[in-house]
Amino acid sequence: MSESIQTALRTRARELLELGEVSCVIGYERSPRGRVRPAFIYEPADADRLVWDNTCHHNLMVYLHDRKTPPRRGEEVPRVAVVAKPCDVRALNVLLHEGQIAREKVFVIGVACAGMCEEGTEELQARCRRCRERVPIFYDALVGEPPKVTAVDEDWADVVELEGMSAAERLAFWTREFDRCIRCYACRQACPGCYCFECMAEQVDPLWVGIAIELPEKAFFHVMRAYHLAGRCVECNACELACPMHIPLSLLNRKIAKEVEALFGYRAGGDPQTPPPLATFRKDEELPL
Amino acid sequence: MKLTSREQLAAWLDALMERATVIAPRQVECGGGSGTHLLLYQPVASSAEVVFDFQRTAMSPKGYFLPSTEVLFEIEKRSNEVTLDEALPQDEQVLFAIRPCDARGLRVLDALLVEHEPADAYYAQRRRNTTLVGLACPHLWPECFCTAIGGAPDDSADVDIMLYEVDGGYLVSEITEKGTALLAGLNAEETDQPAPVSDRSGPSVPVLAPEAWPALFNELYWARLSDRCLSCHACTYVCPTCRCFDVRDYTRAAGPNGIHIERLRSWDSCMAAAYRRIAGGHNPRPSKMHRLRNRYYCKFNYCPQDFGAVACVGCGRCIAVCPVGIDITEMLGEVAALAATLEERGKGKG
Amino acid sequence: MNERDNPLRPYPGRLVGIKNIAQDIKLFQIELKDGQPFDYRPGQFAFLSAFGVGEAPFGLASTAERSPVLEFAINRIGTVTDALHSLEPGAVVGVRGPLGNWFPLEEIKGRNVVVLGGGIGGAPLRPVIHSILDHRDDYGKLTILWAARTPSLLIFTDEYEQWAAAPDTELHVTVDEGDERWSGHVGLITQLLERVAPSPENAVAIICGPPIMIKFTLLTLEKLKFQPQQMLMTLEAKMKCGIGKCGRCNMGEKFVCVHGPVFWYTEVARFLESFV
């Protein structure tokens, strides 16, 4: 299956570049050390560098941020193609709703996805076991057949366990986790939803967080980032996978996703029509807060 | 040379902890019981916490010399009077089981922060207050390339004491007087056993001479290389030689008698988009291409000129940590190939 | 440890005078307390601390010869400058310096000097002008081209008369955009430079201003046949230490703080593409 997807991806990428439809195809390649990493293909001849397997976990939508504003005044933004899993397309959907990316500037090569594995294992990531869409909600071209995988039910077990702790226990838990943070911002930089020109964590005027790499600043940064992703986090796990300190960031994001789902019956990026609840204002809205 | 057992070494460490802060590799549990671990240099309260068998810690130990955050000055300000107190570090530290590459990283930082005058008072004081106990690597670990860059897995040039693991314990080599002084109290026997020679085989990584880099500055290669860069700070924070910092005041307390301010210094990263942005908005390194290129030029071209040292020791951490697979050894190989191509082309024209 | 051994230590200075010299630009006069020595030359800079916010580097706008106090012309543009602008005379600020190199005024004796200042970039050039005027016979013709975006942003306006009246000295002032009271030249400094067209013969051009102004002024000077070894500039960069440690101000292997801020064009030509 992976192999036929890989062949189809290469063919499609080559065609798009040969026809001049796009200036670059963003996909995956294998590094000389054998690990999969993001790839930028500019020449049709390089299309064979593209690979597909169950370790293509990076959310490539993050690279569309670089390309959303003209590099120099007056210069056209070149159209690019991007390889996108169903979760990645949901992230793109969030960006489209927020007016961050022009749809016509991106050619979406959707991939039917059987799920990504935990690093170094053949075991599906938890989020992939729960995944409800194996085919992206939209695309310009689809590669692969919808896989026959039955999703396990979302029971929020990890979040429920956290909710079961006392406040003091929860504080102790997160203190231990956030304490390891080195404020490298890999989580934020890997996140398609984090595109602020100036993050509140680095803003100096007004100074929200400050420069110290200490527990209060770390905790504040992570909690604020999670809030800023409320109703926007698509659970691609890019943050957690990028974190060099193994902080369980998805747990934090999932807690908020659970609240958003309970309050609004909304899953981030889930459908192209419904705008995100926290970017919507309804006069008659009442929430059970 | 002395021979000691792991138990005797542990007893010596426990005794040291009475009078100095002992920093050693320690296993840290992550993710609330998810089973993942990180190995970090951390202060230990007992030798039982020390991990003796390890490859590489996730972070370099540079933070014990240039902390990720430190107070430079305690400032008291009342109406129109200001008093400043230097917060110079006083603690005696022992860094146990530092790897030769990390010790060499400190030599690079010494060149930048101490030998290049004026010396950084805080870093210099921590260096004076710290004794380095090195632990040789038997061979190179995954991602390591110290031998390609002038180091060796058993290089004892930059430590005060060097340990080599052998059958039945450790060989202890006293390198400096500071090291000898620290060893008082270690139960060990004299031996004429020679230090084992580590296996130096490693990847062949061509490192272009500093003077060859300027010719490549404007190559498209840098844009292509940085395409996948996320502009996070991970590579610079795990690096044993990156030392960029930021300084800012924090008001800690304000009352009728004035305000108490701390002037803090924290790590900063040249990879950050706003790193060079000036108050008016101008940014001389606006794209990640500018920034990643600058990082590598800093290591292999600028630091050799300014401080006489290549600012890379081949520890491989930046390779291991990069979320998107940017690999400094791959870059070095490609840059060398590019230089060769350009030279060929130049000859063709000439 | 000797206090002198900590190069990051600021020394207390008292604000003895604050003058509004242009829109959002004040001239700060600082007297160092306790007779702290401060031996500086035109072109050098110092860090000023607004305690509680932080410190930032500023070019010295005075000469020791003329002024018993240290003078800095500061534009309110960021957090530190904002805090400095809110201070009243008598307040204590931190001073760390002098730092960096200086204009080679000895080396260029006997030559004609063209000074090009744009906006707040004129501040570190004032000591150059003062030094030349105070040793008028040591130099050839002095041509000052002075610019700002608007008339209200022109700095040191109260000195123009004195500058223009000095022997063998020309002052040309321009603004990008005039207003109802402005009767002088309107246009970019590059246009003014082309019109004045100072001769490159035995001349040195000294430039300071925003990056974009430096970039185009250099191009115009080249058109006027000035050679790179005849162009001096003083550069601005974000800095945290001023002593070549924090890594923030590098331009290639040059640190603006220790190898500069004054550079010959020949030293930095290959880096200016990324800098300006």
The CATH superfamily label of the largest domain in chain C reads Nucleotide-binding domain of ferredoxin-NADP reductase (FNR) module
CATH topology of the largest domain in chain C: Rossmann fold
Oligomer: heterotrimer
Are there runs of chain A of 5+ residues with pLDDT below 50, and where? none
**How many separate structural domains of chain C?**
2
SSE sequence of chain C, one letter per element: EEEEEHEEHEHEEHEHEEEEH
CATH C-level class of the largest domain in chain C is Alpha Beta
Uncertain segments of chain C are none
The gyration radius over C-alpha positions of chain C equals 18 Å
First-residue to last-residue Cα separation of chain A: 47 Å
Strand content of chain C: 25-35%
Helix content of chain C: 10-25%
Written account of the structure:
- The complex is a heterotrimer of chains A (289), B (350) and C (276).
- By secondary structure, chain A is an alpha/beta fold.
- Chain A is 33% helix and 9% strand.
- Chain A is built from 9 helices and 5 strands, in the order H-E-E-E-H-E-H-E-H-H-H-H-H-H.
- Chain A has helices at 2-18, 86-97, 126-130, 157-163, 167-179, 186-190, 215-228, 238-242, 249-264; strands at 24-30, 36-41, 80-84, 106-111, 141-143.
- In chain A, helix 5 packs across helix 7 and helix 7 runs parallel beside helix 9.
- The model of chain A has no long low-confidence stretch (mean pLDDT 91).
- Chain B is an alpha+beta fold.
- Chain B has one domain.
- In chain B, the strands form 2 sheets. An 8-stranded mixed beta sheet of chain B has the order 3-2-6-7-8-9-1-10.
- Chain C is built from 6 helices and 15 strands.
- In chain C, helix 5 (211-223) links the parallel strand 11 and strand 12.
- Chain C is 20% helix and 31% strand.
- Chain C has 2 domains: 3-99, Translation factors (Elongation Factor Tu (Ef-tu), domain 3); 112-234, Nucleotide-binding domain of ferredoxin-NADP reductase (FNR) module (Rossmann fold).
- Chains B and C meet through strand 4, strand 5, helix 3, strand 11 and strand 12 of B and strand 4, strand 13 and helix 6 of C.
